[in-house]
Amino acid sequence: MERLIGDAVRRDLQKKMVLLSGPRQVGKTWLARELARTYEKPVYLNWDNGQDREVIKRQAWPGDANLIVLDEIHKMPGWKTFLKGVYDTRRENASVLVTGSARLETFSRSGDSLVGRYYHHRLLPVSPAEARLAGKERPLDHFLERGGFPEPFLATNDDDPRRWRRFYLDGLIREDILDFENIRRLRSMNLLIELLRRRVASPLSYQSLSEDIDASPNTVRHYIEVLEALYIVFPVYPHHRSIARALRQQPKIYFYDTGLVEGDRGVRLENHVAVSLLADLSRRTDTDGVERELRYLRTKEGKEVDFLVTRDRVPHTMIEVKWQERSTAVSLRYFYERYGFPAFQLVGDLRLEDHGAIPVVSCNDWLAALDRHDW
Fold first, then answer.
1. I need a labelling partner for 227 at 20 to 30 A (CA). Which of 195, 218, 313, 328 fits?
2. 230 and 282 assigned to the same domain
């Protein structure tokens, strides 16, 4: 299905090299091949393919290629220096697209080899807004059960998504994690993922998790960083004027695949909202360069709002998520009356909307129009 970031990636390919990252099986290869259709002489090479790997090492692709797609190239030793050479010596008007299932932007920051040579775009799971624009609208329960990864999302029966998810999670643990880093205690990593699936939307305690998997808090922190780098989970930190102080406080963890979440509808709904918001904010930031982040609000007394969208680190919009609640949440009203930030309460099962000072609206309808919000 058509993806929202396609046009932006196409435009940026005419200017610089493009790094396209995102979770495994989220549609990066499909998007790359769709973009290749607009070029006369494209070439697609995947580092995981033995024959392609030899071509990549020797840079033996056709000299007249006007689009070079290099998939999973971050697994190649010295890949940043390699890409710098490819980009600097490419034929005039030849575009370079690099895709991968790990955070390429994190790797690229670890050295200056690619500075000034690339734009970065993130492809995340399909959101209700993206589904609407592609003519693939689905009810809320569909997103909560299937998630937004294209294959289970578009499946025509319920069995295939379950089978897909089983092999997807096994592949993440046994292949991607081991390829990414030598995790000695794979059983501990497996257990950690299972625990995180049951603790979505709750402030994270590294100490508690360390006791559960019999590892040090620093090891748990490192394992979660690996899961973040591989686009399996993402943290949402509390908002604080001091970035360092915010990062020291307890984040909440969410999964890119809502279908992996174990919990009631309210928890899965919050995860669905989190990944939909993240996809929209990432797409906008990658396109216009304005920094937008997803945070949450919490006072020492325990008053909490699920999400806060910030723009250039300034609070912009508060969002509270409920499965079945028409009256405005007490904490949301507290922050609204004290600070005046625009606020919405999104409800999964809502019969009648309330468009007062703090709108109480249908979650699915609001998310389906997410691309129309101004932030």
1. 313
2. yes
**Of 122, 155, 186, the domain-final residue:** 122
Domain that holds residue 28: 6-122
Q: Is residue 225 part of a domain?
A: yes
pTM of the model: 0.93
Shared-domain flag, residues 180 and 235: yes
Residue 301 identity (one-letter amino acid)? E
CA separation, residue 283 to residues 37, 45, 130, 150, 322 (Å): 22, 25, 11, 17, 25
| 200-226 per-position pLDDT tens digit | 999 999 999 999 999 999 999 999 999
Instruction: Based on the fold, state whether residues 107 and 198 are members of the same structural domain.
Output: no
In order, the DSSP letters of 126-162 are PPHHHHHHTT----HHHHHHH-S-HHHHH-SSSHHHH
**Nearest alpha carbon to residue 100 among 72, 70, 124, 77:** 72
Cβ(268)–Cβ(322) under 8 Å?
A: no
Residues 59 and 190 placed together within one structural domain of the fold: no
Residue type at position 240: H
| 217 and 71 within one domain | no
Cβ atoms 86, 59 nearer than 8 A: yes
Mark whether 85 and 134 lie in a shared domain: no
Residue 184 lies in a domain: yes
Task: Give the Cα-Cα-Cα angle 226, 260, 208 (nearest 5 degrees).
Answer: 55
| Side chain identity, residue 262 | E
pLDDT tens-place string over residues 27-76: 999 999 999 999 999 999 999 999 999 999 999 999 999 999 999 998 89
Beta-bridge partners for 318? 308, 343
Q: Answer yes or no: do 74 and 138 share one domain.
A: no
